[in-house]
Design a protein that fits this description.
By secondary structure, the protein is mainly beta. Helix content is 3%, strand content 58%. The chain has a domain of 119 residues: Immunoglobulin-like, CATH 2.60.40.1120.
Length: 837
């Protein structure tokens, strides 16, 4: 289905046992304005041969209207302060229900045949925000389902190369450059995670989502101080008692929601469990793998009167990652000269990440044109990363003699060695925020401002070292100030030291004051519609602690947007946005590769310009005209005071000295529409180039220089069996510059990983869906369900071998180094059951 910007979810479900008592069908929902506030007094009605029937929304914006049986009607939504909206050709049978949550705004919203056909002048479009339907988020197939999974595909300029991770890069930025909000509260992720398979669950519970907006750059001042992107998520406010259950071989979730009789209280509670064993066991390394990823999340809303509105979000997450590798064999080389790496492991890894998050928001309506919002939040994480893993390896030829007892095994070893990795890393972090926001509506003008205080208290101990032994000789670290050593041809008499060694204990506090103010304006000039936004942010911070005395630093970030729709008869919009984007350093950016905190690291600065075209049109497919939308964005970033880093899997290690400059430019395009009637699919393509210059040594590719990107989501169903549906998620990204050793000088070694290619497919059989006449069932045992679906998921459909990093092994005899790919997951099958009542 087509969605309008800021459209609330279509997933709030049946009315429970009271619904079965209804004789005639009903339409119900919550009506909000452009700022996500309930609208009271909206006149909801329909008129047909039997007359007119109407109702009015209450102070919570809720309405419920009884409809005629099996007869098409037009339902109107009318309010003196908003444009008229309607739903066309709405037809329901006995006991039918349809939930619709319109956004009252300028322009007209039409729905034809219960397929949303947007009049496309919404706020998100002119602001450059991509809106994602919660329904598509839930149904999209992938090894890491959820909001991030779909952002990687639909987001303009979003790239990734690791299906085990929820992290993503945007237009040359890294994982730490992306803002994530839930109900205006900034969300943080654990600090110590180094591998995608350790992540488990993202913060966002997809079954609680109301709307998702994403910006790849050029965003407004109301969003915080990061360089690359904004993911703005809103959780919904329930209007009925409902439940949702999902279960698969990878875990499950249960979501319950309800509302009080007087509509003042409402709540959603969701619990999730995740086990990645099915995915990890498809990798080459044989392991005893015992992961446990679980969380419970709740949102409680209280609206005592028309003036006040309170909301609380809480989350408790516990991720336990127990990993005991046993054996690995990787074959590489060529057909004529195959080579194998065999590794025998001893030891284990035990990681634990416990996070606690709570946020309380209170909003007060001073007048019809003035609102205040107060936000207080706290995030506490306790993390430990303990491992001792001994790897004994052998590098040799592969036995290719068919019928041999050792066929496929490693023979004629040319090198042997051992590697011991040790870590005892602990981190305890507490982050608290207090923020006040104000909103003023003045006819065609809208003014927004905010002030925020943040305190970050970090207690960190890092003890991490690696010893490498090859043919009985301890290999020394690649540091230039060591004397020459000719092992194994001549004995070395110097002290034995680890190949890599990091030891540090840090107690750091960061105090931040930030604020913003922005002005928005929307008007018509002749036949053109124009939108303007201008604002600025200011951010002051200081790093202190034990033996840490940083100076106070201040940055000011002006930003602006301009959009114009030059012809009312043609739905094409042009947008220019950009400004100065600063990223004051977070704790990870202050800690260098040796673990030491450098308190005077400067904020990275990006001068960012985005030029966009947004074109909505109808295209004839088969015998019908269907809606499509083409979005094109060209961008350029000039980045100063760059905090250069190395990237290995999902762990980032910064140089923490602002010794580089960089740039990024590219072009992104996305086409979405109804390639198949009643379903929305899209294709996205992009080109990006990003390079950095460290200490004036010249420009080289940055660790996120992923040049080409192609993404496709295709939804379809069998015409003669509409209950059988298919979802295909296809991604192609060119390789990242991650094919060289982490210790290597990037100016001397710029090899890349292979291209990332992946296809995930899902096949589902819909047993019940009360919103779809083609599959709605009248069977008695299915009546309690609003939706019931059984599906088969195939991850990595074509069994592509994608690599995340390389393992580097040295040949003692030839002194060559071999880069052996560390492959990600292979083809995996899973079953999934979804039920909503």
């Amino acid at each position: 289905m087509k969605k309008i910007n800021k459209l609330l979810t279509l997933l709030i479900i049946l009315l429970g046992t009271t619904a079965f008592a209804q004789k005639k069908p009903i339409i119900f929902g919550v009506i909000i304005d452009e700022h996500n506030k309930p609208v009271e007094g909206v006149n909801v009605y329909y008129a047909d041969i039997e007359g007119t029937k109407r109702t009015v929304t209450n102070k919570s914006g809720f309405y419920q209207l009884e409809l005629p049986v099996n007869r098409k009607v037009i339902v109107w939504f009318e309010h003196i302060s908003f444009a008229l909206s309607r739903i066309e050709n709405l037809e329901l049978g006995w006991n039918g229900t349809f939930q619709f949550n319109p956004v009252m705004m300028s322009g007209t919203t039409e729905i034809t045949g219960v397929v949303i056909d947007v009049k496309k002048n919404g706020r998100g479009r002119v602001e450059g925000l991509t809106n994602v339907s919660p329904e598509v988020i839930i149904k999209m197939v992938g090894p890491n389902p959820g909001v991030e999974n779909i952002i990687k595909n639909i987001g303009l300029g979003v790239t990734f190369n690791n299906e085990l991770s929820t992290q993503y890069n945007v237009r040359g930025g890294n994982y730490d450059e992306n803002l994530v909000y839930v109900n205006d509260v900034e969300i943080y992720r654990p600090f110590l995670i180094r591998s995608g398979q350790q992540e488990g669950l993202s913060f966002t519970n997809s079954n609680m989502v109301e709307s998702v907006d994403f910006s790849s750059g050029g965003f407004q001042s109301r969003f915080g101080d990061k360089l690359s992107s904004v993911l703005d998520i809103k959780y919904r406010r329930p209007t009925r008692y409902a439940a949702a259950l999902e279960a698969s071989f990878l875990g499950g979730s249960l979501t319950l929601e309800g509302v009080s009789k007087n509509d003042k209280w409402s709540a959603i509670v969701g619990a999730r469990y995740r086990d990645n064993s099915l995915l990890v066991n498809s990798q080459e390394t044989e392991t005893n793998f015992k992961p446990t990823f679980a969380d419970i999340q709740a949102i409680v809303n209280f609206k005592p009167n028309a003036k006040w509105d309170f909301s609380f979000i809480g989350n408790i997450s516990q991720n336990r990652y127990h990993y005991q590798p046993l054996y690995r064999q990787t074959n590489f080389g060529t057909v004529d000269d195959p080579i194998a790496l065999q590794i025998f492991y001893d030891g284990q890894e035990k990681d634990e990440y416990q996070t606690y998050f709570g946020a309380l928001t209170s909003e007060y309506k001073v007048s019809d044109n003035f609102r205040l919002k107060l936000i207080g939040s706290a995030y506490h994480t306790q993390e430990q990363e303990y491992f001792d893993i001994l790897a004994a390896y052998a590098l040799g030829n592969v036995d290719t003699n068919i019928g041999s007892d050792t066929y496929g095994a490693c023979t004629d070893c040319v090198t042997v060695g051992e590697q011991l990795n040790h870590a005892r890393n602990d981190l305890d972090a507490l982050i608290v925020n207090a923020e006040l926001k104000g909103y003023h509506s003045l006819k065609k003008h809208f003014i927004e401002w905010g002030a925020k205080y943040t305190r970050e208290d970090i207690r960190d101990r890092i003890v991490e070292w690696e010893v490498i032994d090859s043919a009985g000789f301890s290999i020394r670290p690649p540091v230039v100030d060591f004397v020459r050593n000719d092992q194994p041809y001549a004995p070395y008499t110097g002290p034995l030291v680890p190949y890599q060694n990091t030891r540090a204990t840090n107690f750091a506090q960061i105090n931040r004051l930030s604020g913003y103010a922005q002005w928005s304006y929307k008007d018509s000039i002749g036949d053109s519609e124009v939108f303007m936004n201008a604002g600025a942010r200011v951010h002051q911070w200081q790093v202190t602690g034990d033996n840490i005395d940083g100076k106070s630093q201040v940055v000011i970030s002006p930003r602006a947007q301009f959009a114009i729709k030059p012809n009312r008869n043609r739905d094409m919009l042009y947008r220019l946005s950009g400004g100065f984007y600063y990223q004051p350093p977070f704790y990870r950016e202050l800690r260098d590769s040796l673990g030491m905190v450098r308190p005077n690291v400067k904020a990275q600065r990006s001068i960012h310009v985005v030029l966009a075209n947004d074109y909505s049109f109808k295209l004839k497919v088969g015998d019908t005209l269907r809606p499509f939308r083409l979005v094109t964005e060209a961008y350029y970033k000039k980045i100063d005071d760059v905090n250069a880093y190395t990237l290995e899997n999902v762990r980032i290690r910064y140089r923490a000295n602002n010794d580089a400059v960089a740039y990024a430019y590219g072009l992104d395009m996305r086409l979405n529409g109804e390639f198949v009637p009643g379903t929305e699919s899209w294709i996205s393509v992009g080109y990006m180039r990003t390079e950095e210059n460290i200490n004036n040594r010249g420009y080289i590719a940055r660790p996120t220089d992923q040049r080409l990107k192609f993404g496709l989501l295709f939804q379809d169903y069998v015409p003669n069996i509409p209950s059988l549906k298919m979802y295909l998620n296809l991604v192609y990204n060119t390789g990242l510059p991650g094919g060289s050793p982490s210790y290597a000088d990037p100016y001397l070694y710029q090899s890349r990983l292979n291209d990332y290619r992946r296809a995930d497919a899902g096949f589902s059989y819909v047993l019940q869906d009360v919103t779809d006449k083609r599959v709605k069932s009248s069977k008695a045992w299915l009546k309690p369900f609003r939706e019931l679906t059984l599906g088969l998921e195939i991850f990595n459909l074509f069994n592509n071998q994608n690599a995340i990093t390389n393992t580097w092994v040295r040949d003692v005899y030839s002194k060559n180094q071999y880069g052996i790919p560390n492959y990600l997951t292979s083809r995996v099958f899973s079953l999934k059951l979804s039920a909503r009542i």
